[in-house]
Input
Amino acid sequence: DVKVTQSSRYLVKRTGEKVFLECVQDMDHENMFWYRQDPGLGLRLIYFSYDVKMKEKGDIPEGYSVSREKKERFSLILESASTNQTSMYLCASSTTGRYGYTFGSGTRLTVV
Amino acid sequence: SQQGEEDPQALSIQEGENATMNCSYKTSINNLQWYRQNSGRGLVHLILIRSNEREKHSGRLRVTLDTSKKSSSLLITASRAADTASYFCATVGSSGSARQLTFGSGTQLTVLP
Output
């Protein structure tokens, strides 16, 4: 069964900490995405990547960065966590030509 | 930016009834997709309809697309309690990158046993 695995289901971090959210897919997908989901705001795209070592900003990249050193792994980095980054973070992957995304189970991050 | 807007925001029906959810979008699309999300979990891809298609079926799901009205509907027939979830439409634009999905705000469906 194909999978997108996010390293943590729940995470609690302190304001100002550097936070790493990891995402790994086993489907050899070239495209990977990070979204955050908040009540009433739906899913908003933070960053995405179409290839190793490349990245593009989505709609809300401020306060975030990403890293894609290997095809299967796409990391989201909160440089200095703030309380307004408390959210559900969803990673997804896809392959070009097949437009459906495969999502991970999500990481619920709380910044205190 | 949000492309799709689902209607209604919440829907509650009895088991066995049909559930219809609607989605409107703003710009021209390459395709439109529907996803389902169980509470606190990731999204699961349900069905994709291309801009040159008008209707598509998959099991108990029926999707229609009207590009002139920039709208789509998802029909779930003979609903079950296990269909309780949030349902999202998402679009791939016809210009620029064909790989980015833009999601709507979702419809929360509750199926009562």
Remarks:
- The first strand of chain B starts at residue 5 and ends at 7.
- Chain B has a mean pLDDT of 90.
